[in-house]
Specification:
The protein has about 350 residues and is α+β, with helices and mostly antiparallel strands. It is built from 10 helices and 18 strands. The protein has 2 domains: about 190 residues, no CATH class; about 130 residues, Pseudouridine synthase. Helix 1 packs across helix 2. About 45% of the residues are buried.
């Protein structure tokens, strides 16, 4: 599904962390190991202990390029496993140093069918993710006229088909102003929004009856038609948190006396992070590359965000959930982990 949705997709701008508190200081020996690793040339052999220490010292916010396929949570787990493996700390054989833990999370969920910028917090950077969710996001969405689905995107079951031959480019451009500015929007049933602690999408997949959430205020800063080749149309959208591109495309189809769903969705920008300039592809998910990215991206963020803790009410509003994985613990057979 394509949530772009700036929010739950971060859906409703959701923020998830899979991690554990990093020590406020890394001790003298640890600092020395990091310095030694930094002095080594690219051809030098870096010990696993030095890599582990460097990993645990990482703190800040960076971005990765999420491909189509995995969910945001699955991608976060893949990233975590890569880093632990590089540092010689596979999750099944975690070190016994209880005080040294890895905290990592993402803010602004993207559905499995969507691709693009996914903001990641590591160490104390996880405290900044809620603030990141309040910034603007930008998307390129390809919609398909004439078909409606239960998920509002191409992954769902077709629920309705209507003619679209009469729709022109001018028709689409003429209605976009209705969806620009401060508007009211009904979130999709298939979303990361929750009812009684469970995601609506999970309840829907179980076949349970789910009532639509009431319309809520959202903001669209800019909206333009980039291309129209019936039945497909391409939109460039910049919006605030809590906005769903799938709902937008569906509403546009209805406004045109037809129907529509999202065929492709790409998030090109989240806050100050852009897909082209800041999002690390998977082959760059290494401790050194992330350290360099954290340094590069530090200039993008207000200094006061670095140590700012999200308020309890903010965490609830944005669906904040945290996992704490200590380096000497693994998930139980039932998959249960500590959550905040």
């Amino acid at each position: 599904m394509a949530s772009a949705e700036a929010a739950a997709l971060s859906s409703s701008s959701s923020l998830e962390t899979d991690s554990a508190p990093v020590p406020e200081t890394v001790g003298t020996a640890a600092a020395a190991a990091v310095a030694a690793a930094a002095r080594m040339g690219p051809g030098a052999r870096v010990s696993k202990a030095a890599l582990a220490t460097k990993l645990l010292s990482l703190s800040g916010v960076f971005a990765v390029h999420k491909p189509k396929g995995p969910t945001s949570a699955e991608l976060l787990n893949r990233l975590k496993e890569k880093l632990l493996a590089e540092a010689g700390m596979p999750s099944a054989e975690l070190t016994k140093r209880k005080r040294q833990t890895l905290k990592i999370g993402h803010g602004g969920t993207l559905d499995s069918a969507a691709r693009g910028v996914l903001v990641i917090g590591i160490g104390r950077g996880t405290k900044m993710l809620t603030s990141m969710l309040s910034g603007s996001k930008r998307y390129i969405a390809i919609g398909e006229l004439g078909k409606a689905t239960d998920t509002l995107d191409s992954t769902g079951k077709v629920t309705e088909e209507k003619p679209y031959d009469q729709i022109t480019q001018e028709d689409i451009e003429g209605i976009l102003q209705k969806f620009t500015g401060n508007i009211m929007q009904v979130p999709p049933l298939y979303s990361a929004l929750k009812k009684d602690g469970q995601r609506l999408s999970t309840l829907m997949k179980r076949g349970e009856v789910v009532e639509a959430k009431p319309a809520r205020p959202v903001t669209v800063y800019s909206l333009s038609l980039q291309k129209f080749q019936p039945p497909f149309f391409t939109l460039d959208v910049e919006c605030g948190g809590g906005f769903y591109i799938r709902s937008l495309v569906s509403d546009i189809g209805k406004e045109l006396s037809s129907c529509a769903n999202v065929l492709e969705l790409t998030r090109t920008k989240q806050g100050p992070f852009t897909l082209d300039e800041h999002a690390l592809p998977e082959d760059k998910w290494t401790i050194d590359d992330i350290a360099q990215s954290l340094e590069h991206c530090s200039s993008l963020l207000p200094a006061e965000l670095a140590l700012k803790k999200p308020k309890p009410e903010d965490s609830q509003e944005h669906g904040l959930s945290c996992e704490y994985i200590t380096l000497n613990e693994t998930k139980g057979e039932d998959g249960e982990i500590k959550t905040c």
